[in-house]
Amino acid sequence: MKTLHLLLRLAVRNVRRGWRHSIAAIGTMAIGFVALATFQGYLSQLLESQIAMNYARNMIGDFMVRKPGGGSVDARVRPDKYWLDEKDQAFVQAWVKRQGADVRAAMRALLVEGVANAGPASASFMLFGHDIAEGHIARRDWQWYAWAGRPARPDEPNAVVAGLGLGQSLGCVVKGNPQIFDPRTARPIAAERPMDCKTTSVQLSGSSPTGRVNALDGEIVGLTSGGVREFDQRLLWGPLSLAQDLASTKGVDSFQIVLADPGRAPALIERFSAEAKAAGLHLQAVDWQQTEQADLLNRGRDMMSIYRNLVVFVLLVIAGSAVLTTMAKTVRERTREIGTLRSLGFRKGHMLAMFALEAGVLAVVSGVLGAVVATGLRLAVDAAGITYRAGMLAEDIPLTIGWSGQTYAAGFAFLAAVAVLAGWVAARRVVELRVAEALLGEH
Predict the structure, then answer these.
(1) Distance (Å, whole) CA 56 – CA 180
(2) Are 36 and 404 in contact (CB under 8 A)?
(3) What pLDDT is recorded for position 428?
(4) pLDDT in the model for residue 100
(5) What phi and psi, each to the nearest 5 degrees, are found at residue 98?
(6) C-beta separation of 427 from 350 below 8 A
(7) Dihedral over Cα of 96, 97, 99, 103: its sign
(8) Alpha-carbon distance 244 to 257, whole Å?
(9) Rounded to whole angstroms, what are the CA distances from 223 to 100, 124, 249, 299, 367?
(10) Cβ atoms within 10 Å of 177's Cβ, excluding its own
(11) Within a 13 Å sphere around the CA of 94, how many CA atoms are in the beta-carbon half?
(12) How does 183-205 read in b/e, with b if 16+ C-beta sit within 10 Å?
């Protein structure tokens, strides 16, 4: 223990005495730490915010109830085969009621397709019919989702909100260039903004599974974005009863179950599945991210994970190489010091430990400095309100950098390990010299 304490004191002294080399090493590792923390924070925040936004704006529950195979190709061809009938719905609603405060909302949903006509304009549509009041809860912090106009209300049986692209095809656009997003929250501002429409009245035509053609009148009360340009060209949001009347059915595609505590989802999924099986019902409770509809999200997440790992590897290689070069130069210039300490009785292991401790001290200082700089950079970027456009997304994404103690700790651990290893590798060749050679500075 005394030897370790002495070696640590020598390491700290060497850091102070060789301040030029120390600054170079600290700067290299601090920059590496900032790069790692910032990059990891950005990707983590991007993924987390996009998943949360997707859940909110599309009213996705913490788990969903549907018929097995409800997301298959066959279900897209013959959706009526996978609708939950009135008996299924009664069971789900009774089960939800028994869960009490665990369940915040159970929103029924039905997707139907058809053709919309507004005067001379027409366009194909997909109507996402849902329970309006429950959908308000399922939207979480996106309860006001209208870019122009307003959201549909529970007491409006024919009110629909159109996607921006579909609205434009039907002669209805956002008027002017209003501010839609709150720059602090990156969510739509809860205010009714004007829209310019040739007519807000629209006729919706759709066919039932038996081939019956139905036509109903709808009223466009708002315009919004589905988050992806392709959706904006076709989607309508409206009351469940309107979708059911168009399809001549009382069935629904699914229930979206919103929980008070999302962490309870696995236990409640297991409970529901057991009770549905005991009741002899062919129903499936599943996490949305495990369904076919989440395939694009899961592939994007996998691709981001590969990209992140590649960039982290490159950063570690660059930082490790720079630290190794700096430490090697430092050790070579201190060959006589090593020879002197060896002549005083220090062993090779003591020398290696001293340089490893020296690298560890540099890593600690670099970690503290890097954490301060990374935190300052994160706060500055978040406060700047920068936005950018990405891929197929219909609107700009705010540039934010997340903070995670785990990310900071992992970044510090990686760089500390690299620094200690670099110090050990750099010192190993020199300490193998004979004492006389080291005292003469021969290496």
Answers:
(1) 17
(2) no
(3) 72
(4) 94
(5) -70, -20
(6) no
(7) positive
(8) 20
(9) 35, 16, 27, 30, 49
(10) 6
(11) 9
(12) eeebbbeeeebebebeebebebe
Model confidence, pTM: 0.76
The pair of structure tokens assigned to 303 is 């691709």
Nearest to 219, CA basis, from 345, 116, 97, 373: 116
Output the CA–CA distances (angstroms, integers) from residue 23 to 8, 138, 150, 342, in the order listed: 19, 53, 58, 27
pLDDT in tens, 182-238: 767 778 889 999 999 999 999 999 888 877 888 999 999 999 987 777 788 899 999
pLDDT at site 396: 64
399, containing H or E segment: none
Longest dimension (CA), the chain: 101
Rounded distance between C-alpha atoms, residue 401 and residue 295, angstroms: 26
The DSSP code for 289 is G
Beta bridge partners, 398, equal: 387
Where the chain has pLDDT below 50, the residues are: 392
Amino acid at 330: T
Joined together, the tokens standing for residue 363 give 């890593």
Strands 284-286 and 63-66: antiparallel
What does the pLDDT read at residue 310?
82
Q: How far is 345 from 179, CA to CA, in rounded Å?
A: 74
Alpha-carbon distances of 219 from 94, 198, 316, 350, 359, rounded to whole Å? 33, 12, 58, 82, 70
